[in-house]
Write a structure and sequence with these properties.
With 70 residues, the protein is mainly beta. The protein is built from 1 helix and 5 strands; from the N terminus they run E-E-E-H-E-E. A 5-stranded antiparallel sheet has the order 4-3-2-1-5, with no helix packed on it. The longest helix has 6 residues.
Amino acid sequence: MEERPPKPRVGNLVKISEDYPNTQAAGRIGLVIKTMGIEVVVEPIGPDLSASQFQHGKPWWFKRTDLEVL
């Protein structure tokens, strides 16, 4: 029987799937700030955030399956 990957929880660091369609987000690391069923709100972290991410400070929303808990 195959074991399921752990569910992202608030405070977890996660890696966004390399296959994610948004190339700004794919492969990035973020901090889980909220979970809502199968949706997870992630605050991107790192020195190479785009200017719009710094300016607007908006978190990203993902399906749980697009994230890997680190």
